[in-house]
Please model this.
Amino acid sequence: MSPDDIYQKLRDRPFEPFRVHLSDGRSFDVPHPERAVIGGHRMTIAIGGDPDRVPDRLIDCDPYHIVTVEPLNGKSARNGGKRKR
Model:
């Protein structure tokens, strides 16, 4: 997925929490726009901890390895409403 696509999802208002699925099978939730940052070929996602405090850890990934983005409410955001099987 292009960095611009992810950047736009982070800027959408109202923000809709989403999950990214990576090409290596991992997935991570982005519950708030301040829990992720993207630039160039790097996306950093803050994982765990109190949302108003320092996260437990940071995950770095290449946005081009994001194969699916889906809202945390269960409906798919970028694949025409179809769930990934």
About this structure: The longest helix spans residues 3-11. The beta strands are 18-22, 27-30, 36-39, 42-47, 57-61, 66-71. Residues 70 and 77 are 5 Å apart (CA to CA).
